[in-house]
Automatic annotation (TrEMBL), chain A:
Stored InterPro entries: ABC-2_transport_permease, ABC2_TM, ABC2_TM_bact-type, ABC_2_transport
Protein's UniProt name: Transport permease protein
Domain of life: Bacteria
Keywords recorded for this protein, A-Z: Cell membrane, Membrane, Transmembrane, Transmembrane helix, Transport
Topology term for the membrane: Multi-pass membrane protein
Length: 257, 307
């Protein structure tokens, strides 16, 4: 009976979260489509034609999975960070805190909302990509699992950011100063093998390298890193962030007096 | 059975502010209970602990015999909370707010939609069901929070100043609504600054001041403690001097007489004396609400003894 109640609660949070980003679709779904179109036009068609092949693929083909992943990461993160922080700011997070909803359900609900938005955005960007490149699929299972795990991971990151955030500025600090540099240096626009040896070693510390490469493997069948290592990193980080988020909310950090 | 049992509840906020200094309180099932106190007395902290929005420092809280330390979810499921400040998403529609809230308590969407019609109609919000909450007036927002709190049909409804800023007409309709809810078996705990509200609605009362319960009794017994009642009499003519033996009196102006009637004195004695002096009285009223008089005296007395 109680488990059934938790399932209803989870569905309600998901419904609310989806309703939120669909209500403001012009702010949430359209911008990534426009931004990625510009990336495809500028880097894919205009500059890409002069870059030549990367790892045996045209530059636009090589770049396409990374661009989808870039949109997925940004949207999963920003959806949860802004939604949870707004709920804190307007105090409607109290609606959940007073209800008999376990913390893991609250976390799953918010993260689920971020994952759904990220998946929709990923699909929209894939549609945009069709105008610029013939999409080939090497392994759909790898594509789907990488996309979902990455979305979960960054949605959890956004949630933790929102838990600690005290002002709206605080939810843009991590994306600006940490997430963007890691993403742009995460192999979206280049192959790690193009880097000097030292920087190849340094780039192994960037978790986004593993996600982008695993995702690229799903499309192209080529990757700079081992798939096993990539999934180990993804699952490892996801578990760590999940337990961190649950612990923080359980303790009431930033949400209870 | 007790709807609520609080034993030695303490709350010390970061920075050392001692909001609750070991309060003990019980509320019987079915009661309409007033928790009164001046600003900063600890009412909202107490409610915060009950609803798990505030972490207690120590003490025990049981809701329908479920200790919040070891069966929190069960305890929460019995409580409906109407907080002091608006805490819903201003961009969601009225119906979305109440239906989502029901979902958090495990009420299936189909049933929640049916209940939303019942409670939004009872709170006169049905016509506004598709409006974003930010478009509602202050009174409508207060009613929305009551409708939202009722959606999972709680056994204990906690209202933290539910009628603050609400006009008298709506306030009275809310009183009727709350009385009906209480009659249906729901235990209600009410905090309010409108003491006539507490007096007319509640059967039992606790007064909290500076984190301590300074009075906890039935409304009848508490009002029985009132040793002096002050009345204002509107006179029919101009009077320069009126002397009364039965009670203390003061001519406020030539048309208004203030009398302090001690416990045991009767209005008959007062009117006999006034009639003998050929003083005609047009109307009379209490100077202040009876509970208000007691409340002020109790809080002031508590502070004097603490000093």
């Amino acid at each position: 009976m109680i488990q059934a109640n938790y399932w209803v609660a989870l569905k309600s949070i998901l419904y609310k979260e989806c309703n939120r980003f669909l209500r403001i679709w012009v702010q949430t779904l359209v911008p990534p489509a426009i931004t990625m179109t510009l990336y495809f036009v500028v880097f894919g068609s205009l500059i890409g034609s002069r870059v030549g092949e990367v790892n045996g693929f045209s530059y636009v083909e090589f770049m396409m999975p990374g661009l989808i992943m870039l949109a997925v990461i940004n949207n999963a993160y920003s959806n949860v960070s802004s939604s949870f922080f707004s709920a804190k700011f307007q105090r409607n997070v109290e609606e959940l805190l007073v209800a008999p909803v376990p913390t893991y359900v609250i976390v799953a609900g918010y993260v689920g909302g971020g994952v759904i938005r990220a998946t929709i955005v990923g699909f929209i960007v894939s549609l945009v990509a069709l105008f610029f490149v013939d999409i080939q699929i090497h392994n759909f299972g790898v594509i789907l699992s990488t996309l979902l795990l990455t979305a979960v991971l960054f949605a959890l990151g956004g949630l933790i950011n929102a838990v600690y955030a005290k002002t709206f500025d605080d939810i843009s600090i991590i994306p600006t100063f940490i997430l963007s540099p890691l993403t742009y240096l995460g192999g979206v626009f280049f192959s790690v093998s193009m880097l000097p040896d030292f920087w190849q070693g340094v780039s192994q510390l960037n978790p986004i390298i593993y996600m982008v490469n695993a995702f690229r493997f799903g499309f192209l069948g080529a990757s700079d890193v081992s798939l096993t290592l990539a999934f180990s990193v993804l699952i490892g980080f996801t578990l760590v962030l999940f337990f961190t988020a649950v612990t923080l909310i359980n303790k009431g950090i930033g949400i209870r007096s | 059975m007790y709807a609520l049992e609080i034993n030695n509840l303490k709350k010390v906020y970061k920075g050392g502010v001692e909001a609750l200094k070991g309060i003990d309180l019980t509320v019987k099932e079915g009661d309409f209970f007033a928790l009164l106190g001046p600003n900063g007395a600890g009412k909202s902290t107490t409610i915060g602990v009950l609803s798990s929005l505030v972490n207690k420092t120590s003490g025990q809280v049981k809701v329908f015999n479920h200790d919040i330390d070891n069966s929190l979810d069960k305890a929460k499921s019995y409580i409906g909370l109407v907080p002091q400040e608006f805490n819903f998403n201003q961009f969601e529609t009225v119906q979305q707010i109440v239906v989502n809230q029901a979902g958090y308590y495990g009420v299936e969407r189909k049933i929640a939609l049916q209940r939303s019609e019942v409670y939004l109609k009872q709170t006169d919000l049905w016509e506004k069901r598709n409006s974003p909450a930010r478009n509602l007036s202050g009174g409508m927002k207060r009613r929305l929070m009551i409708a939202r709190a009722m959606m999972h049909q709680p056994k204990l409804l906690i209202l933290d100043e539910p009628t603050a800023g609400v006009d008298i007409e709506i306030r009275r309709s809310m009183w009727k609504f709350l009385t009906d809810i209480n009659k249906s078996g729901v235990t209600i705990i009410l905090t309010t600054h409108y003491l006539e509200e507490a007096e007319s609605l509640c059967r039992n009362i606790a007064i909290i001041d500076k984190g301590k319960i300074i009075e906890n009794t039935s409304m009848k017994q508490l009002l029985g403690k009132l040793s002096v009642e002050t009345f204002i009499l509107d006179l029919d003519d101009d009077y320069q001097d009126i002397q009364l033996k039965c009670c203390k009196s003061e001519l406020v102006d030539s048309h208004t007489l203030q009398v302090e009637l001690e416990k045991g004195s009767t209005l008959n004695q007062l009117f006999s004396e006034l009639t003998a002096q050929q003083v005609k009285v047009k109307s009379m009223r209490n100077k202040a609400n009876r509970l208000e008089e007691l409340f002020v005296r109790l809080v002031e007395h508590g502070r004097e003894t603490q000093v």
